[in-house]
Automatic annotation (TrEMBL):
Residues 30-157 form the ALOG domain. Keywords: Developmental protein, DNA-binding, Nucleus, Transcription, Transcription regulation. It is found in: Nucleus. InterPro entries: ALOG (IPR040222), ALOG_dom (IPR006936). GO terms for cellular component: nucleus. One of its GO terms (biological process) is mRNA transcription. This is ALOG domain-containing protein. Residues 1-33, 148-196 are annotated as: Disordered. GO terms for molecular function: DNA binding. Residues 19-28 have a biased composition (Pro residues). It holds the Pfam family ALOG_dom.
Amino acid sequence: MESGEGGGSSSSPAADKTAPPPPPPPPLSRYESQKRRDWNTFLQYLRNHKPPLTLARCSGAHVIEFLKYLDQFGKTKVHEAGCAFFGQPNPPASCACLFRQAWGSLDALIGRLRAAFEENGGLPDSNPFAARPVRIYLREVRENQAKARGIPYEKKKRKRAAAVAGESSSNPPPPPATAASSSAPDPPAGSSPSVS
């Protein structure tokens, strides 16, 4: 017998006892999956940009350009100022106004891209998704969409403030110190009253 044949058959039980492959990594959460898709979409946008852009040269202006590009895929009707339904929350009929990305979707997208940028080696100080022009753009989109729907965001803030004020009025304020000391129960026997 050749040593290769004999060695192969006698060592096969040992070869069968090799460590099993490591288990696959746990599936990504919905947020992590979406963040990865968003990041890949943005990188693809940079590659297709004319002229092509590198991430290192990307600025807040390019991020805003990307957000405007995404508007063509939006599903939220945003009425223009000249539209008969401008400012109506529930318009009775259809109009020719364009669909756009909803402000909340853009805000969440920027949050995911800001995190992805830093996870992929970007420095927080040079993060184009955290640039001031991007924050200003998002604020303008929010305000314009609120006006177009006739639902100002400030109104929601006032309701929350009123609710907080209502909660505090339902709990009466503590009695004044003089009234509290005169109506306080007598101390238990054997303990001395505190002197102020």
